[in-house]
What we know:
InterPro entries: KFase/CYL, KFase_sf, Kynurenine_formamidase_bac. Pfam families: Cyclase. One of its GO terms (biological process) is L-tryptophan catabolic process to kynurenine. Its EC number is 3.5.1.9. The chain is mainly β and about 210 residues long. The chain has a single domain (about 1-10, about 45-205), classed as Glucose Oxidase, domain 1 (3-Layer(bba) Sandwich), CATH 3.50.30.50. About 10% of the residues lie in helices and about 30% in strands. The chain has helices at about 30-35, 125-135, 155-165, and strands at about 1-5, 25-30, 40-45, 50-55, 75-80, 85-90, 105, 125, 140, 165-170, 180-190, 195-205. The protein has a 7-stranded mixed β-barrel. It has a two-stranded antiparallel sheet with strand order 2-3. Strand 11 (about 180-190) and strand 12 (about 195-205) form a beta hairpin. The longest helix is centred in the middle third of the chain and has 9 residues, at about 125-135. It is globular. The relative contact order is 0.25. The mean pLDDT is about 95. One zinc ion binds near residues 53, 147 and 158.
Amino acid sequence: MKIHDISMLLNSDVAEWPGDTPFQFQLNWTKQQSGSVNVGQITTSTHIGTHIDAPFHFNEQGKKVHELPLENYIVDAIVIDVSGQDVISRESLKEVLTGKAKAVLFRTNAWNKRVIFPDEIPVFEVGVVEWMVERGIVLLGVDLPSVDAITSKDLPMHHALGTAGRYILEGLVLDEIKEGTYQLIALPLKIEGADGSPVRAVLVEQVHF
Ligand SMILES: Nc1ccccc1C(=O)C[C@H](N)C(=O)O
Ligand SMILES: [Zn+2]
Ligand SMILES: [Zn+2]
């Protein structure tokens, strides 16, 4: 079994969404002060680094993080390379064999410096959601800070996914990952009422003897 870590490193250099809370970890109570242990504190947006969006992020009636079905986040996944494409269309995906994959992870390779927030990112045609539904794919993952354009306010892809009962994983690190099938594990924290949560995302590669 080989485990690929596809999560962003969290520290104060990681680029937050413009205007959102920067990530910070600090030792709040040192071993010297407490007499026994080091104790840290984190300050973060729920949309930092590699994270999931709960439907409540963009829909008042949507599910919150503690209500999300965990089956979505331990799944067979396919990684598809779409690098160089500004628009990822349904048409361009029609020949792709997704087999029993329940998650699709798109490798755009368009966000290389994670300390800088990108101005522009590749976008998805909403038809990609229908393509997912036809194939029984429940989760869309991207190596980008959003599944919609950065400046979008109406968030067509977020809403199309939410309406179709599909789920969102953002900020993956897929630079080193080859196209193919893996097991994805990316569990959100059990934060009551939350709109999103950082995850530790990994791809497990089955090694055959
Ligand atoms: N953190 C934010 C603060 C303000 C406005 C948008 C965001 C987002 O996170 C949007 C992005 N599409 C996301 O779901 O991660
Ligand atoms: Zn998000
Ligand atoms: Zn999002």
